[in-house]
Amino acid sequence: MTIQFFGAARTVTGSKHLLTTASGKQILLDCGLFQGINTDELNQQFGFDPAQVDYMVLSHAHIDHTGLIPRLVRKGFDGPIYTTSATIDLCQVMLMDSARIQERDLERVNERRTRRGEPELEALYNEDDVQKALDQMRPVEYGQKFVICDEVTGMLTDAGHLLGSAAVSLTIQEDGGEKKLFFSGDIGRPDDKILRSPDPFPQADYIICESTYGDRLHEAEPDVKAHLLRIVQKTCVQNRGKLIIPAFAVDRTQELIYALDQLSSEGRLPVLPVYIDSPMAVLATDVMRDHEEDFNPSILSYIKKDGDAFNFPNLHYVTDVKDSKAINDSKEPCIIISASGMAEAGRIKHHIKNNITKPNTTILLVGYASPTSLGGALKRGDKEVTIFGERYPVVARIEIMDSFSAHGDYKEMLQFLSCQDATKIKTVFLVHGEYEKQLIWKEHLHNAGFRHVEIPAMGEKVVM
């Protein structure tokens, strides 16, 4: 069999890895959108023929893992997509939102391309393509073995990264016996505020492992709520400004709401409006409520006492565009939580554009942001940023809380991999990370006993 890496190879986004069995069956692991600057043309081509793909297994619903599935379907893929039921529900929300964003952003992209004398790009997909993709999804429970084809069986285990997120174990039958391939998806943290900790997984021969934070340790955060409250007090009470938080609509937004809900229940949150300004986040919060089976015991205990972890006085879920614009027009202190988490699309870009030059504004970054994204530029400390093609000086205060990250650091990832006998692993392939960080992660893996670690390049094919 072979595995070929068509995304998230020495980069973070665009996850897609194509397994081809000895008989020629093709199984795609994830099909994500490349995100960031100058990715428009990159998302137009797959590097393989979608019509030749027979099956797909999906790890979780984040757009850098799912965002090109509708285009895959548009270009001829008509096979089953195996994933968890929570992931299917989230894809309903996230991919429909992505289709609408694609159409809006394409107009601006093509305007610029026309001015430069370049040909226009076609829409990646539309809502009809999304619905076709959703119709092809097949729910699989954690720990349940399922048959993909005569040669391959699969099993999903909880990755603890996102509601419904899964790591993928595949058993491939060949003439010489069987081979076991494991795909980590994105590895969650053992102390997530909402989700259960990642589960151990069966012994593998080969591992495809993410690398996002392979070079770092998350800073210890003894009291996340206290840190968040200090930022709220400084920005909204002392400076009478707006606290703007770019946050992924799923999981990150709900973690923030849960933290603010607890502060409100404890009587410590100042009386001021809190806006969840993202139609997708509003829908995703409802999906979260529908899948409490993925929650950890701590939040389940809180819900039993409080009734709802995602609702408190002065919390406003905003869906209407006019209401969103009214928030920008208002001069009152407030908290605005809006998608996307990397500040690359959606209403958050408008909130940042309208407030980034105001010294009493705070932009709080609470998760990973690709270096080429607006969130990445702010996190890096750039003094000027480009928003909707215009340059803006960064006058607003930038704060960072990495304790909200859903990606495990290198110690947490090593803990996740500790269920494996490293001497039995033939090769670990590192994906979903920046190359310099992957080199450091590779050394950590060597020190933990994983002898053969490779960092595949884009398009590289490996025979196993």
From TrEMBL:
Residues 13-227 form the Metallo-beta-lactamase domain. GO terms for molecular function: hydrolase activity; RNA endonuclease activity. Residues 253-378 form the Beta-Casp domain. Coiled coil: none annotated. InterPro entries: Beta_Casp, MBL, Metallo-B-lactamas, RibonucZ/Hydroxyglut_hydro, RMMBL. Keywords: Hydrolase. It comes from the Bacteria. The keyword Hydrolase applies. This is MBL fold metallo-hydrolase. It comes from Spirosoma profusum. The lineage of its organism: Bacteria, Pseudomonadati, Bacteroidota, Cytophagia, Cytophagales.
